[in-house]
């Protein structure tokens, strides 16, 4: 038995190094364009698993009281930025100072205003946002119909100003931004996509002009593809059929990673050429460990990392594992609140943050 324990201890040394190596690769995912290395991108997607394995190795070496414990510690600390992007403890309070104009912004992928139960959700969502005193609202997967167009929704939201950009070939689907403050100008950010889009608006906020950018980047389609693995017919299929399904899913994920990376670069160009205070929000369809998030974020701040509390997810599918909706902001702002409640009106949660100009 002693020989077996000794052998296992020796085996744990290379396992610790290999797992730490994967941690390093996962850390690199945020800085590596998927068009250059899709392997690194996929390891970045698996970062929760990599961190859990490192944690188990850490516990093992602590119990054994060996100096090898430093390896998983370094591996975990290397990805501490990811950990704080999904879990935060904000102990101090922050309130809006007297005389400061509140910018309470909501970013919400409303799923074309159709719930999973296929109910029309415009009335529920507008009532919720009014009760939360939001004064700038960015809708992704926005949809109009003959009963509720942009003017009607403006009235429901109590936001008299709005700007809409539509998907190519559509007069009802796109991205919408609604505001209590005057919209001075707006424009479409061309993503070269039939299903995803982005836009910007310049809003008069007191004596200052603020730019709001709203994005809906390339959809992963993982939830739809995963249903192929759950197909009962696949349970009795041969190995080749299973491999074909897994290959198909992997190839589509890889393609969408690359498309989002290109779209992130387009959005980043708009940010880099903006010379006024800026807030970027939307459904990035990618996690905080991704190149997409890191490239758009750049030197912007993440409102969850500033004012969030507890564990954060914004996508209601895949067992609440993904935070893919964000509100980022430039240095001219102070963030005082972050709020992302569980609501049943979409497959995404709304994200609400409050700011004021310093």
TrEMBL record:
Domain of life: Bacteria
CDD domains in the cross-refs: EEP-2
BP GO annotations: GPI anchor biosynthetic process
Gene Ontology cellular component annotations, sorted alphabetically: membrane
Stretches that traverse the bilayer: 6-27, 39-63, 69-91
SUPFAM superfamilies according to UniProt: DNase I-like
Record domain Endonuclease/exonuclease/phosphatase: where: 106-348
InterPro entries: Endo/exonu/phosph_ase_sf, Endo/exonuclease/phosphatase, GPI-anchor_lipid_remodeler
Pfam families for the chain: Exo_endo_phos (PF03372)
GO molecular function: endonuclease activity; exonuclease activity
Keywords, comma-separated and alphabetical: Endonuclease, Exonuclease, Hydrolase, Membrane, Nuclease, Transmembrane, Transmembrane helix
Protein name per its UniProtKB record: Endonuclease/exonuclease/phosphatase family metal-dependent hydrolase
């Amino acid at each position: 038995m002693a020989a077996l324990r000794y052998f296992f201890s020796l085996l744990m040394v290379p396992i610790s190094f290999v797992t730490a190596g994967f941690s390093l690769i996962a850390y690199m995912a945020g800085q590596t364009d998927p068009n250059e290395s899709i392997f690194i991108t996929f390891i970045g997607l698996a970062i929760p698993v990599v961190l859990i394995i490192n944690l188990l190795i850490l516990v093992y070496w602590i119990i054994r009281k060996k100096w090898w414990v430093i390896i998983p510690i370094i591996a975990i600390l290397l990805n501490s930025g990811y950990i704080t992007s999904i879990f935060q403890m904000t102990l101090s309070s922050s309130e809006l100072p007297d005389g400061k104009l509140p910018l309470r912004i909501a970013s919400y992928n409303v799923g074309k205003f159709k719930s999973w139960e296929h109910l029309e959700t415009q009335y529920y969502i507008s009532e919720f946002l009014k009760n939360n005193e939001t004064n700038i609202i960015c809708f992704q997967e926005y949809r109009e119909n003959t009963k509720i167009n942009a003017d009607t929704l403006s009235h429901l939201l109590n936001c008299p100003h709005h700007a809409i950009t539509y998907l190519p070939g559509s007069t009802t689907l796109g991205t919408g931004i609604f505001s209590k403050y005057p919209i001075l100008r707006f424009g479409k950010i061309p993503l070269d996509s039939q299903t995803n889009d982005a836009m910007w608006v310049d809003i008069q906020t007191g004596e200052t002009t603020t730019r709001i950018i709203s994005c809906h980047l390339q959809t992963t389609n993982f939830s739809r593809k995963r249903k192929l693995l759950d197909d009962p017919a696949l349970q009795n299929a041969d190995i080749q059929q299973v491999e074909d399904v897994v290959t198909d899913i992997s190839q589509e994920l890889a393609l969408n990673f690359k498309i989002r990376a290109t779209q992130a670069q387009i959005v980043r160009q708009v940010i880099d050429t903006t010379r006024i205070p800026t807030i970027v929000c939307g459904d990035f369809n990618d996690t905080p460990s991704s190149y997409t998030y890191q490239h758009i974020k750049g030197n912007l701040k993440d409102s969850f990392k500033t004012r969030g509390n507890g564990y954060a997810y914004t996508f209601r599918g895949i067992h609440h594992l993904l935070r893919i909706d964000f509100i980022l902001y430039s240095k001219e702002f102070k963030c005082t609140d972050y709020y992302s409640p569980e609501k049943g009106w979409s497959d995404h949660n709304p994200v609400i943050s409050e700011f004021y100009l310093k």
